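Before we proceed, please read the two lines closing this message. Tell me what the token row says about the fold.
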Amino acid sequence: MKGHEVLIGVTGGIAAYKTAALVSKLVQAGAGVTVVMTPSATQLIGPKTFEALTGRPVALDLWAPLTSHAHIELAERAEVFCIAPATANFLAKAACGIADDLLTTTVLAFPGPIVVAPAMNSRMWQKPVVQRNLQRLRDDGFIVIDPGEGYLSCGMVGPGRMAEPEEIFLRLAQLLQGDQTA
């Protein structure tokens, strides 16, 4: 991982706390990590957490006065882009090419491999529309790390738990080593 640049997108799922562990593992392995958060994500975990872990500012706003092309600059800096957690809302936007915030515009501008780690309630995960969106993303070349099964924050037990940070880390490491089949 040393010397590689990773872009992490965080959406508004409770599994965002697990993304902090992923970011920490990436930084400890020597990767440069930049985090992009949706407004909903900031309701669940603070940007300061990711700033402390990465030593970099967190990208939050498409219209921030720092740069007029933040989505392009972010996309050009990284080698791999991982969205974790990827909510049903994000998956739908990405599958349809909707770009209405910094995260989704950066997805459209990103030329490299994009990894998504979905996380949501079991009923949401099993909806045909969510599965269609995932299939469309797979068909478009996105790498999907399916969620696991277990206890969910809503109290249900079933599929929908975001993959563990270690699993996502290993997949990103494979991609950065040139294994595009990861």
In short: The first helix runs from residue 16 to 28. Strands lie at 5-10, 32-37, 80-86, 114-118, 143-144, 148-151, 157-161.
